[in-house]
Design goal:
Length: about 750
């Protein structure tokens, strides 16, 4: 990130801060450009600057509600009268939740207040230097910094105290009651790290409210239900640190329609109304606040607020050893513990190294490749778009980059793009009939995708958009024997000749009728997706497991799915793709029809990018010289270097049980070494100059194909191309260049 920092020995720590106990330290990280400011003074400075530029500030003025007409903000009602406005920003902090609910059209802002404690001392006899570093001790859960010649010290306890759960928060900016008993564990940590604190005169134990969100990230962006209603709240005790950047991005959002960087992890639309339960928020923030100083290992899940949204098969799968993860409030199986395994150790597999579930997931992947597995994927977002005439097709043609004017029963993989050509959504759409479409999107896209569609669809009474996520249980039947299982249950031949790839048909499975069967698996492996009306879910699942016994059927989870899709170079939205990634940058040109005869959002930007070239490219890396058993695993977010220069970072990774190596996916940029300007990324830049001959590359390509990685000359996949000591990935065009132009 360009922030100077260094690792130093304990003796160097003592030189920088004379009051710190260093005897139990191994070392520290020093950030020399870190600074201390007064949040009150910063707020006043910003307010004064705004006033000089024409901003009116009404102090001691309360807002009763925001006025809304036809889904748009028109003004605010205050105790001093009405103020007309087109935009409203809810920056009410601990009061944001209640203010959001006070409108005619409520805006859900999930945050909850907790008590937050810190200690103030009177000035030291010999005050610390102004450049004395702030101390953060995560093990002790404390921070220490200088304050007006004395010491300000506090922390984030393991047992926080939520407040204002029962009713309206009437508290203004003032202190809550002292609670020395509650503060005692933090005080013990403070005295251990700074023994001299005991001799200082305590001026005050401050107890003030602080608001926290369900996932430790602030809330930013426009409401999905009210146009012009923006939110910036839930700063999780880091408002001063994040204020400048958050304010900038929100201003860009309001002025330009979108921020200049990807802020999806902070977007209000990552939450739904289901996360606004007061009871849920009270319990979740009691877990969130301690995590600010906890070490969060990969594949980590919240423990509170669980079993909120479940598939009809939840109890059945749980009894068969499912271990669960949560996504957008939905429980999803990670893997299944076989009978006789040590359940305790698998529940506590928190590590940066090889996890306890390694062999279990490996056996699930093996079954997906050699037999047949069932994965419950009911959490995926599902919409139906229909009309009385051709309106549905016309609107979808404008909203999506691929051509959806396909025969009934065909499935199209496509993207919903913004004006810059970036992915607002990545989805699959099946044409059910001439006027009806079935859309499948990632789980956490439920609110965002709905808001985007509603924003861009005309208010036409003949056009119907319905969220049917809750209506269907989705089962992913993966593996070469999936054809046999489904053929026997439906009495219909399911071979590619009779049921081609990317085809959808309603049919009977067992005794249940009206099952939407789709020939795709989201992994590149053979198989089918079954979208089952929820009343038939248990019956169809039982039939599949019963019929599949002779074919070696078993349950599998999302970890197996992740391994399969990453080794096939499948990008997922929210992990690899975002609003600043275009189809041309991730090798999905074939999912864009620039010449489909109708304009679509993002088309002009893609045409320009096609002419200019792309400045980043999605790439696959296969790790060499990496010991899976002993070395740290890559998880995601690792930096990528080329010839010693930083060129990007990984977006997702998994162990490939097929290649018996780790596979990482990420974006590579060609940055000018002097100006850091982004240059066009060419195939030569990715491939680098290797010592292998072209015939050696071809032979290795064929070898990887035999291991299960498809080598397609139609542009449907990306190829793993080993070069010299580093294995990278390229799109199909440079591979064709290798195979034919230099054959």
């Amino acid at each position: 990130m360009g922030i100077p920092c260094e690792i130093m020995a304990p003796k160097q720590v003592a030189q920088l801060h004379p009051l710190i106990n260093i005897h139990d330290l191994v070392g520290a990280m020093y950030v020399p450009e870190d600074a201390v400011v007064s949040s009150v003074d910063v707020s006043l400075a910003l307010a004064n600057a705004a006033s000089r530029n024409g901003v009116q500030i009404h102090e001691r003025t309360s807002i009763s509600h925001v006025m809304v007409q036809k889904g748009c903000v028109t003004g605010v009602e205050t105790d001093r009268g009405q103020i007309e406005c087109q935009y409203f920003v809810n920056c009410a902090g601990q009061w944001a939740y209640e203010l959001g609910l006070s409108n005619e059209e409520p805006v859900s802002i999930p945050l909850h207040g907790c008590e937050h404690f810190y200690l103030l001392t009177r000035p030291l006899k010999k005050p610390l230097e102004s450049n004395t570093p702030t101390i953060v001790d995560p093990d002790g859960r404390i921070y220490i910094r200088s304050w007006q010649g004395g010491i300000l010290s506090g922390g984030f306890e393991k047992n926080p105290k939520p407040i204002f759960t029962e009713g309206r928060n009437q508290l203004e900016i003032q202190n809550l009651h002292e609670d020395w008993d509650h503060f005692e564990p933090l005080l013990s940590s403070l005295l251990r790290r700074m023994p001299g604190l005991e001799a200082l005169e305590i001026m005050q134990l401050v107890n003030c409210p602080e608001s926290f969100t369900p996932d430790m990230r602030c809330i930013l962006g426009e409401s999905p239900t009210v146009q012009g209603y923006f939110v910036l709240a839930g700063m999780n005790s880091a408002g001063t640190s994040f204020g400048g950047g958050a304010g900038r991005y929100l201003a860009e959002w309001m002025v330009n329609g979108c921020p200049s960087e990807n802020v999806w992890p902070l977007d209000l639309k990552r939450f739904g109304a289901l996360q606004s339960s007061r009871t849920f928020l009270r319990h979740r923030v009691m877990e969130v606040m301690p995590l600010i100083y906890d070490l969060k290992v990969p594949r980590w899940d919240f423990q509170t607020g669980r079993q909120l949204r479940t598939s009809p098969l939840y109890d059945r799968l749980d009894a068969q050893g499912a271990r669960w993860m949560e996504k957008h409030g939905f429980e999803r199986p990670k893997y299944f513990v076989p009978p006789g395994k040590d359940l305790l150790s698998l529940d506590q597999s928190k590590t940066f190294y090889k996890p306890d579930w390694f062999d279990i997931v490996g056996s699930e992947v093996k079954c997906c490749k050699e037999a047949v597995c069932v994965i419950d994927m009911s959490s995926f977002t599902k919409f139906e778009i229909s009309s009385t005439g051709d309106q549905a097709l016309e609107v979808l043609q404008y909203l999506f980059s691929n051509d959806l004017d396909v025969p009934v029963g065909h499935i199209v993989h496509t993207g919903m793009l913004n004006e810059e050509g970036g992915y607002e959504n990545d989805c699959s759409i099946a044409r059910l009939n001439k006027r009806s479409f079935f859309m499948i999107s990632p789980t956490d896209q439920q609110v965002h995708c709905w808001a985007w569609l509603k924003k861009h669809m005309p208010n036409d009474s003949n056009l119907l958009l319905e969220d049917v996520t809750w209506k269907y249980t989705a089962l992913n039947l993966i593996g070469p024997r999936a054809v046999d299982v489904l053929s026997e249950l439906s009495y219909v031949p399911m071979t590619p000749e009779h049921f081609p790839s990317l085809f959808c048909k309603e049919m009977s499975v067992g005794y249940a009728n009206g099952i939407r069967v789709m020939s795709m698996t989201h992994t590149g492996e053979p198989g089918f997706m079954l979208y089952i009306p929820i009343e038939y879910a248990l019956h169809v699942y039982n039939e599949l497991m019963s019929m599949g016994q002779k074919y070696g059927i078993r349950n599998a989870g999302y970890y197996a799915l992740r391994s399969l899709r990453i080794e096939k170079f499948f990008a997922f939205w929210g992990q690899d793709l975002d609003t600043f990634t275009t189809p041309l940058e991730c090798g999905r040109e074939f999912r864009v029809k620039l010449d489909k005869g109708t304009d679509f959002i993002g088309r002009d930007a893609l045409m320009q990018q096609k002419q200019d070239g792309v400045c980043k490219r999605f790439t696959m890396f296969i790790l060499e010289d990496h010991d899976t058993d002993l070395d740290l695993w890559p998880w995601w977010g690792e930096p990528i270097y080329r010839n010693g220069h930083y060129v990007g970072k990984t977006t997702s990774s998994a162990y490939s049980y097929t290649l018996e190596r780790h596979v990482c996916l990420g974006f590579v940029q060609n940055l000018d070494e002097e100006t850091r300007e982004a240059l066009v990324v060419t195939p030569d830049f990715i491939n680098r100059e290797g010592s292998q001959s072209k015939s050696e590359v071809v032979m290795e390509l064929l070898a990887y194909a035999e291991l299960g990685l498809p080598v397609s000359l139609k542009g449907k996949f990306m190829q793993a191309v080993p070069n010299s000591k580093e294995v990278t990935s390229t799109s199909v065009s440079p591979v064709l260049d290798l195979l034919f132009c230099h054959s």
